[in-house]
User: Which sequence fits this backbone?
């Protein structure tokens, strides 16, 4: 983006069997303390809740042979971001509901959220043209109508959360959503790594970096989603609006020229007895006013442009597509593994999320139950991001993306290691310590490595 969304990855339980990892969905089990400041009714038609997330990050100076206009600063710096969200909803009937969320974000991101494909803070919202300070005006994050078509009489128990107020769902059903939302609310979810409020913080750990999903600068879009769910599998399809320009705030409402199709298949097989397994396969196609890396290079080498300029090759209706795989596996009561694999065609510019054309992620988390801290959790992740040959050459010749541009490039895959520990303090208050070590920042062997240390305060109201 971008972007990024401060709210959005809350690891909400959605399709299929409910996710009972209570620290992530804001509920309490019979044997655990409450994990929200205020209790929330399981029977009221109305829902009101909220969250507050502060992330402080800092890094020391690091080696850099050179820097460009979009480089991550190699002098020491620190930054603080905040995101505050008010979630509201009303259940109209047994099968219909309306949801509305209001959000406010502020603070500043390290290096104005530039210079890294896997940026270190998912809450860092960068508004083009406004410089490094993040916008402080409240904005509508979500407004959504949600309807359930029952396809069976059998029902399963569901846990209420800000994206769904239903406590009972048909075991076999079709869910329809229309309105404003984040695509990452429903696609490419992974319970080990999708929640920047209680889990990892890096963009390409909490989301598939090669998934250039439709969104405005803040990470939201308008669209419609159809989601068919059976007990052991599901499939969802979404049609969404694309921004008018790369990392842009304004969405293009003309579906004939700009739009995004997303489809994801989810399987929930039983590979280990009494242990949850989820496998997902994702595909997306974006249509937008995108530029071409090779075309930009040809114009530069032909003397038309003084430097490669992706803007000069943009054409309305250009198509970009990609694929993703996503899996999670419970090994024990306390230990889970997660993984993502992603690829996109890399010929056309990174337009919405981040500048990644291929990615591999491995992650794991472990609860603190053995040391009598059952609501504490620690996690470890490794990510390797890469870009296409044309994308490499474009940056090496001095071209700028919306995130990257060191003025030169000695290419190497950007690799990231991230560790966090989240401690439950009281009711809905959590504190986290996080360390990210990044080799070849912005895919450049001539810069880095970088170590970013973070502190996070999260409150579920």
Assistant:
């Amino acid at each position: 983006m971008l972007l990024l969304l401060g709210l959005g990855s809350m690891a909400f339980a959605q399709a299929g069997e409910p996710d009972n990892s209570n620290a992530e969905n804001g509920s309490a089990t019979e044997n655990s303390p409450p994990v929200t400041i205020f209790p929330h009714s399981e029977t009221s038609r109305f829902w009101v809740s909220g969250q507050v997330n502060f992330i402080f990050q800092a890094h020391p100076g690091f080696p850099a042979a050179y820097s460009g206009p979009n480089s991550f600063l190699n002098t020491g710096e620190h930054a603080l971001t905040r995101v505050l969200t008010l979630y509201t909803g009303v259940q109209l009937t047994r099968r219909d509901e309306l949801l509305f969320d209001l959000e406010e974000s502020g603070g500043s991101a390290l290096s104005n959220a530039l210079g890294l494909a896997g940026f270190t803070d998912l809450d860092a919202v960068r508004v083009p043209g406004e410089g490094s300070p993040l916008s402080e005006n409240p904005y509508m994050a979500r407004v959504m109508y949600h309807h359930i078509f029952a396809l069976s009489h059998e029902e399963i128990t569901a846990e209420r959360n800000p994206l769904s107020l239903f406590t009972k769902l048909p075991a076999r059903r079709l869910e329809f959503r229309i309105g404003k939302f984040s695509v990452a609310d429903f696609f490419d979810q992974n319970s080990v790594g999708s929640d920047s409020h209680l889990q990892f913080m890096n963009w390409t750990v909490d989301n598939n970096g090669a998934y250039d999903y439709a969104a405005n600068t803040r990470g939201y879009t308008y669209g419609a989603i159809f989601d068919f769910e059976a007990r052991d599998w599901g499939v969802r399809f979404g049609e969404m609006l694309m921004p008018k320009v790369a990392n842009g705030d304004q969405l293009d409402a003309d579906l004939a020229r700009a739009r995004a199709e997303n489809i994801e298949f989810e399987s929930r097989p039983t590979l280990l007895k009494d242990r949850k397994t989820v496998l997902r396969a994702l595909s997306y196609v974006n249509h937008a006013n995108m530029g071409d890396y090779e075309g930009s290079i040809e114009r530069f080498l032909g003397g038309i442009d003084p430097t490669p300029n992706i803007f000069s090759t943009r054409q309305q209706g250009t198509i970009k597509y990609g694929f993703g795989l996503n899996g999670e596996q419970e090994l024990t009561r306390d230990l889970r593994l997660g993984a993502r694999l992603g690829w996109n065609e890399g010929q056309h510019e990174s337009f919405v999320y981040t500048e990644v054309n291929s990615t591999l992620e491995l992650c794991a988390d472990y609860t603190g139950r053995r040391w009598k801290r059952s609501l504490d959790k620690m996690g470890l992740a490794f990510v390797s991001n890469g870009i296409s040959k044309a994308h490499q050459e474009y940056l090496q010749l001095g071209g700028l993306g919306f995130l990257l541009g060191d003025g030169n490039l000695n290419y190497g895959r950007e690799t990231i290691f991230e560790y966090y520990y989240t401690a439950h303090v009281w009711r809905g208050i959590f504190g986290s310590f996080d360390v990210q070590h990044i080799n070849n920042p912005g895919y450049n062997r001539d810069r880095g490595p970088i170590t970013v240390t973070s502190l996070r305060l999260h409150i579920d109201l």
